[in-house]
């Protein structure tokens, strides 16, 4: 590719993740998006991962057991002149630090909310990561075909619970059985409700928002109410502001029903108009690296181990930040300065793993890894080393005491634990008073993977004792007095020897703050 081709190819990319609480409809909407993208798949492929209907032999054992798949981690399709990359953010019991880290690799996010439930805990956590990054967030309020909460109530919640301004791009006319359509504020038209399979049908509006010609709507009173609500929003709500959207300060809100494929296309069309192309990335010395820079570069945001003992390889997921990737190219690994040949790469599609030939900034590639890579590593070509900013640490919430089952096998235990912790599989802490090892994670799956890999890769059987949920808060070492620790706020140190307390619950944290008002406690994120 010459420079012009590269710039053009990069500008076409739109890379995002869908964030939601389990059951809000992320899978359903992803399927609809893939269908619009013309990705030919057997119906229900994304779905099938939940029922475990897969028979491919080389998948990780835990993957198979849980029905999650590497291949659904990244989905790519072309639509309306854009190349769309959707990154999966696993939820349920598969929620892990990787879920958070995936959000480091996208340029925008789509937040799916169940109209009956509003904002749920996992949505909130994932939202906060997006917020910290300042990336655009688009909201899709789902399940309009069912009775849900009042639209005004739902948009108010965005502001109150998440602290983000919102701008409704459209507004439901009715709900549940009474759903008649969407008042499309942005396009100034009405989209009539159609059941799945039928195309879109629009009604034109005059400058007062009145339907031109005869109205096919059944409930005139509901339509009047919609017009009143829209007046209210236009008067008292936030204005449409591209800059605020770009900075993640205002979220455009779309309503719809993923299941009946209503409002999804409208959402996708508008989304692709405003979703950002691959962003510049900050590199050391505070410089910005343009995505169409001719040097290839990227960082590793996730490493997925192969659980099959016969295949020790892992897949390192790379977000390409600049330039073009070609199979077989040589790159430098910034951490070690070593040169590596990237001959074994893979692209991810909904149902196949395809060998990838080229990719550009904005794309995600998977590299077969035999142990060269760590999470957060930068790789690059060219004479000048490129190092991306460190990935943030996320505060673990679940904890386990861990020790080697066989005390004679300390060596393999330590080797395994060190490597897995370095890889970012789990966090490791050590108790101040007893020296015991404690593992921290944001999701239960991380512990299971840890245990499995300790056995399979390091021949170390571990004994783990659940400690349950804790609130981890770091403390300034200068303010620390070991006497502050009690059974309800266990004092531990992290891998960098920084002290932190593991509080039993919020009450214990509050009690501590009251007792030591001058002590600063910080969460990582
Ligand atoms: P995920 O856990 O967020 O991936 O959620 P799914 O896409 O698996 O959806 C959870 C459940 O909600 C499934 O039973 C879906 O069929 C259902 N669902 C998803 N979207 C809609 C919708 O628009 N309307 C209704 N009525 N059900 C939906």
Features:
525 residues, alpha+beta, Rossmann fold, Alpha-Beta Plaits, eight-stranded antiparallel β-sheet, 26% helix, binds guanosine-5'-diphosphate
Summarize the structure.
By secondary structure, the chain is an alpha+beta fold. It contains 13 helices and 31 strands.
Structural notes for this entry:
Pfam families: EF-G_D2, GTP_EFTU, RF3_C. The protein is of the alpha+beta class and 525 residues long. The protein is built from 13 helices and 31 strands. The strands form 6 sheets. An 8-stranded antiparallel β-sheet has the order 18-17-23-14-15-22-19-20. Helix 11 packs across helix 12. Bound molecules: guanosine-5'-diphosphate. Guanosine-5'-diphosphate (GDP) is lined by residues 20, 22-28, 142-143, 145-146, 257-259.
Spatial sequence of strands, sheet with the most strands: 18-17-23-14-15-22-19-20
Radius of gyration: 25 Å
- Give the low-confidence spans: 40-60, 66-71, 349-353
Please give the number of β-strands: 31
Which percent band covers the strand fraction?
A: 25-35%
Helix share, percent: 25-40%
Number of structurally distinct domains: 3
Assign the CATH superfamily of the largest domain: P-loop containing nucleotide triphosphate hydrolases
């Amino acid at each position: 590719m010459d420079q012009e081709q590269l710039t053009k190819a990069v500008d076409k990319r739109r890379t995002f993740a869908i964030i939601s609480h389990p059951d809000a409809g992320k899978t359903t909407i992803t399927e609809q998006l893939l269908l619009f993208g013309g990705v030919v798949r057997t119906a229900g492929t994304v779905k099938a991962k939940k029922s475990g209907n897969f028979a491919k032999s080389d998948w990780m054992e835990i993957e198979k057991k849980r029905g999650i798949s590497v291949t659904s981690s990244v989905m790519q399709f072309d639509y309306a002149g854009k190349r769309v990359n959707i990154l999966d953010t696993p939820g349920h019991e598969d929620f892990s630090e990787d879920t958070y880290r995936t959000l480091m690799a996208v340029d925008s996010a789509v937040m799916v909310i169940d109209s009956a439930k509003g904002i749920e805990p996992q949505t909130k956590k994932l939202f906060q990561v997006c917020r910290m990054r300042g990336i655009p967030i688009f909201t899709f309020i789902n399940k309009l075909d069912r009775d849900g909460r009042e639209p005004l109530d739902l948009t108010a919640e965005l502001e109150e619970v998440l602290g983000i301004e919102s701008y409704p791009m459209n507004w439901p006319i009715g709900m549940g059985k009474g759903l008649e359509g969407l008042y499309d504020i942005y396009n100034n038209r009405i989209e009539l409700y159609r059941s799945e399979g039928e195309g879109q049908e629009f009604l034109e509006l005059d400058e007062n928002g009145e339907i031109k010609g005869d109205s096919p709507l059944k409930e005139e009173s509901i339509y009047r109410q919609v017009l009143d609500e829209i007046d209210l929003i236009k008067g008292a709500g936030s204005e449409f502001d591209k800059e605020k959207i770009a900075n993640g300060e205002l979220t455009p809100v779309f309503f719809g029903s993923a299941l009946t494929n209503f409002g999804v296309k409208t959402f996708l069309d508008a989304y692709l108009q405003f979703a950002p192309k691959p962003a510049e990335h900050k590199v050391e010395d505070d410089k910005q690296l343009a995505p169409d820079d001719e040097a290839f570069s990227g960082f590793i945001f996730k490493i997925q181990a192969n659980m099959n003992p016969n295949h020790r390889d892992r897949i390192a997921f790379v977000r390409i930040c600049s330039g073009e990737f070609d199979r077989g190219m040589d790159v430098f690994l910034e951490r070690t300065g070593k040169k590596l040949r990237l001959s074994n790469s893979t692209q991810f599609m909904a149902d196949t793993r395809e060998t990838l030939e080229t990719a550009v900034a904005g794309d995600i590639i998977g590299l077969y890894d035999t142990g060269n890579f760590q999470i957060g590593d930068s790789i690059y070509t060219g004479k000048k080393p490129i190092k991306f900013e460190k990935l943030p640490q996320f505060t673990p919430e679940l904890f386990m005491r861990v020790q080697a089952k066989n005390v004679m096998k300390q060596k393999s235990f330590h080797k395994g634990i060190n490597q897995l912790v370095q890889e970012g599989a789990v966090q490791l802490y050590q108790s101040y008073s007893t020296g015991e090892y404690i593992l921290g994670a944001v999701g239960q799956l991380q512990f299971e993977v840890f245990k499995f890999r300790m056995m399979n890769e390091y021949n170390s059987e571990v004994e783990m004792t659940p400690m349950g949920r804790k609130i981890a808060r770091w403390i300034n070492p200068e303010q620390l007095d070991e006497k502050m620790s009690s059974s309800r706020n266990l004092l531990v140190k992290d891998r960098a020897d920084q002290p932190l307390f593991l509080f039993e619950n919020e009450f214990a944290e509050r009690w501590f703050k009251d007792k030591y008002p001058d002590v600063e406690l910080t969460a990582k994120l």
